[in-house]
Structures are given as C-alpha cells and as structure tokens.
Amino acid sequence: MGEQGASKRTNAAKRTAKAAQKTAKPAPKTAKTAARTSPKAGPKAGAKTAPKATPKTTPKAAKAESRLGMVRRARKINRELAEVYPYAHPELDFRNPFELLVATVLSAQTTDLRVNQTTPALFAAYPTPEDLAAAVPEEVEELIRPTGFFRAKTKSIMGLAAALRDDFGGEVPGRLDDLVKLPGVGRKTAFVVLGNAFGVPGITVDTHFMRLARRWKWTESDDPVKIEAEVAEIFPKSEWTMLSHRVIFHGRRICHARKPACGACPIAPLCPAYGEGETDPEKAKKLLKYEKGGYPGQRLNPPPDYPGRPAAPAPGVAPGAE
Q1: Is 48 assigned a catalytic role?
Q2: What pTM did the predictor assign?
Q3: What is the pLDDT of residues 203-226, one digit of tens each?
Q4: Going by C-beta distance under 8 Å and a sequence separation of 6 or more, which residues neighbour residue 50?
C-alpha cells in the first residue's frame, strides 16, 4: 500500500482512540487527589477533628431550680408584694363574721364589687341568721339576683343561716371543721372567714391564687387542696392570711389571666413566667386595674389606709345607704 493507505490507517486509529477515551470510565482518584479536589472530603486518617464552633447566639440551657432556691424566691416575692400592697385586705364589705360568711358564699362566680353592691339591701332586710333563716326564699332570690346563680345561692345562705341558728346559737363558729359543714361553705370560704373574722391563719386558694402559684412555680398542681398544702410548706403559718391577700391583689391588678401586665410588674425579675403578657412598659401600664390603674376599687367601704377610690353603689342606690 502507498502513503495514502498508511495515512488512512493512521487517521482511523486516531478516531478509534478518541472514541475509547470518551467511553472509558475515569480512573479513581487517589486519597490525596480526592482530599484536594473534593469539597466534601473528610479529614485524613488519624487526623484530629476540630470541634464545631458554637454560635454565640445559642442560649444556655436554664438550670433546674432547686427546692431551696424556689422557697427563697417565693419568700422574696412575698416580701416584695408586702411592700407593693401594704394595704391588702379582703375585698368584701362586712361588719361581722355572719356578713362576711354570707358575702363570701355570694361571691362565687361573680365579682366582689357586685356582691358589695348587693349585700347592703340583703343585710338591711335580714341582719341576723335567725332573720335570714325565716325569710321567704323568693324575696331573698330577688335581692341577690345580681350575683348570679341566685336560686342555688339562696338555698345555700338560707341553709347556713338555719344551721347557725339551730346548731351554733346564731353565731358563726371559729373552727374549720364546723364551718365546712355549713351549706355552700368549702375550705376557701372557711379560710376567708377564719383569717379575717377570727384571726386564724389560712391560705385562700381562689382562681387568682391558683393561677399565680402555678406561674411562680410554687406548685404544678391544679387541685386547690393540694395547692393549699404545698404552699403552706413554703411559708410560715403567720404569713398565710396576708400572703393570700397579697397574691389575690396582685392577680386582680397586674398578673391577669389573659394578658398579664409584665412590663409594669414590680416582681418581674423573680417571675419564671415573665413574657407571657405585655412587656412594653407603656402598654403594660394601660392594663393595670383598680388603684394601680387609677380606678375605683371593689369595696364601697374600704379600709382607711386603702389608697384607691371607693367603688360606687349599685345604680339607683344612694352612696352609704344600707
């Protein structure tokens, strides 16, 4: 063959070699090559791996509070509340244990203000247990209608009046075991009467007290009797009655159920639940109630040291009328 035939063979060989290069798989990279060329390559064998840097913005996990720490914090809250509410008191108007007992029973499922606007006419008509026990039920119902559940409440207050007349000589007993036997009287009502009419220490676990005791991590229970027992272990017995008033005052004025005024709360640094409500100070101030917000309180006849304004009587009732 001549030069032309050799040239053709050479060109064909070149084309065959190029085709082989296209179809052949690339040779595997060596370890050094892979480490140098691959961005996902891991460290060399035997090399120490540097720990990943923790972002500075990652919050530290909160340490669990010890029992002793909780007790100390709880007692400090009580001391702070004593300075904020030195005038804390029961917010029901009463002149004797009988009036306080009846008013407390009527306060279920309504406000103390509504009760205070209702009881003057009730006690004017029935000033003693004997009078109330002998009343016409329909007439009592009409007098206490504004407090709600007036039929059930009429049955309770007339029943307890009859029990006081028949079993206690017309006097309210000063013992827990006797009080809780009266119709419509539970532990909460009994402790209100014992603490404020007889000076017997007691913890009043109402809805406000329950809410704040849980927010402040004094308890995790939602059972009033268990809450009472657990809180009683935290505070000296001599503090129980005033503690109840302070906590309830705070719950009504600042630490509300739906929107706490966190930004206006004097014990915010001690509160584990800070931030559940409004934290902006100016907006929080607008949420304050009663004397803290510049409004009247719940009592028509508050104690002399109360810094707020007395509440107004019921519409159509003259101020001071009884």
Answers
A1: no
A2: 0.79
A3: 999 999 999 999 999 999 999 999
A4: none
